[in-house]
Amino acid sequence: MILNRIDIQDYVNSILGTKDIIIEDNVLMSGMEDIVNRIGIVNPKALKVLETPVILTRSSSSATGVSSFSTMLQYVPADNEEIKVYYVRSKIPKLAIRVDNPEQIMNPYSLLNDGSYGKCYYWLEGKNLFAYPPIPEGAEDTERYCAEIVKYGIEGGGKLLWHDRYKYPLALYCSIFELNKVFNAYVSLLVNKMITDKIPYDYSNVEKRLNKDDVELASAELQKIQTIISEQATASDKLRVTMENVVNILQRIRNLRQEYYDWFGVLSQAPGGVQ
Amino acid sequence: MTNGELYALAQLIIPELTAKAFVQFYNIAFEKISREVRLRTQILKPNNVNQYEDLNSFGELDIVKIDSVKDTSRDDVYWEVRHRKLLIYDSNKELITNETVGNHNLEIEYWVNISGAIKPFPTDTEIKNDPNVIEEWNKLIPGTSDVEVQLCALYLMITELAGIFPLEPGTVELYANKFSGAFQAVKTKYNSGNSPATITQVHF
Fold first, then answer.
1. Chain A within 8 Å of B129 (Cβ-Cβ)?
2. Which of A54, B52, B71, B137 is 20 to 30 A from A275, alpha carbon to alpha carbon?
3. What stretches of chain A adopt beta strand conformation (E)?
């Protein structure tokens, strides 16, 4: 099923009980990245559904200085994980082999080098994947390297390069992000009301702390505020209601965050990903 | 099986195996087997002593064992090996020398080891000069065409490759066991199976 930004927005609105939340591209991207990295830790096999065939392009490796074919990876698998890289000629794919030291296979006298007839290899250099031996100039029409790598992102027209299976954690991530924004704004509002109500409090560093956009710092601030307000008999009902709302938002964030973590916990126990 | 068929089979077990490595390790395995199993024997008909005396340069092949020495035209001859030298005596137990070797029709049957069962894989230059050279290499039959022996060498090769190419311990153990069974079978077939003494008529 093809996913769109609208699908995620609708999901987020239904989780938060809102109607008008618009998710920005950078939030979607950071959500995807976070989910992919977490899945990579708990169950790398579950990333298979996000694999997309990509054709490698001609480039030069900085380690070897040799012309080869490469592509940039969004997700770098662990050392013991294989990536399916194929050398395709006349539509027949030949699986390339991962090597850690490309020098070993480039030596023409090496037992690992059968010359132009031989095996094809690939290696990782940071986030780049390189394949060897290079395809002769002008032969790209009939020969190519193709890798099945994890790819995600936002394409034209709001179409997401994402799998339906991971729609829920992405919506959870975006929901938490949206609530975080609201939470910080509410804490600021609460502080402003306290100032209006002339509640004695150390306001000197509040703005500085709240400007950091850090929910944990803001929630620590909230705890201090809760203590102060509960001790102040003069605090207005409006102030107390606002405080209750902020506390509820914080609780909601914590619940959603727990749900988000639990989802990866379930995934870690599934053999090939969640069904 | 041909070189190409054997290499394809080896690649099924070890996908990382290159043709060059296959040639090297298959040849090592095959040579080991050929030293234990009488896969190939040769007959030398010498006309001077120098041709057979030194076992280190015997007929340009590595000798495993002398099977028999006979004089096809005369009486029995006697022979012994001393310090890697083959000494042949006539029926009077006189040492045969260059002067007397012409009086005999000596035939020495000996067992040789096979050190280069598979021809080296063509180099890039050879491939450029002759594009059919790979096809020819693929079609060659390595060492012996007996599939039982070929598989035995293949199993041994896989155990030799363990630790060099990525192989699961279970796979190595499986092929070590397979080799053990196949090796016994080829030993029986070549070392004793041809002996008429082992063929017994059974009456019911």
1. no
2. A54
3. 3-4, 51-55, 57-60, 67-72, 84-89, 92-95, 97-98, 121-125, 128-132, 143-150, 153-154, 159-161
Tokens representing A82 are 């294989």
Q: What is the pLDDT of residues B46-88, one digit of tens each?
A: 888 888 887 777 656 688 888 888 888 877 888 988 888 889 9
Residues facing residue B44 across a β-bridge: B108
Residue owning tokens 């020969």: A143
- What is the spatial distance between Cα A126 and Cα A2, in angstroms, rounded to a whole number? 31
Exposed/middle/buried for residue B10 (C-beta within 10 Å: 0-12, 13-18, 19+): buried
In this structure, of A64-73, A191-200, B35-44, B94-103, the range with the lowest mean pLDDT score is: A64-73
The strand pair at A121-125 and A97-98 is best described as parallel
Are the beta carbons of A117 and B134 separated by less than 8 Å? yes
Question: Does residue B168 sit in the same domain as residue B143?
Answer: yes
Chain A CB contacts of B122 below 8 Å: 117
| Contacting residues of B for A95, CB less than 8 Å apart | 15
Using the Cβ of B132 and the Cβ atoms of chain A, whether some distance falls under 8 Å is answered with: no
What ipTM, to 2 d.p.? 0.73
- Same domain (yes/no): B153, B177: yes
| Chain segment B31-43, per-residue pLDDT in tens | 999 999 999 888 8
Q: Is the separation of the CB atoms in A156 and A95 below 8 Å?
A: no
Handedness of CA A129, A132, A138, A142 (dihedral sign): negative
Strand ranges, E, within B142-183: none
**Number of domains into which chain B is organized:** 2
- Domain limits for position B28: 3-38+115-194
Residue A97 forms contact with B (CB below 8 Å): yes
pLDDT of residue A67: 67
Chain A's closest residue to B125, CA to CA, is A115
Domain coordinates in residue numbering, chain A: 1-42+163-275, 51-155
Q: What share of chain A is helix, strand, coil (3-state, %, to 5)?
A: 50, 20, 30
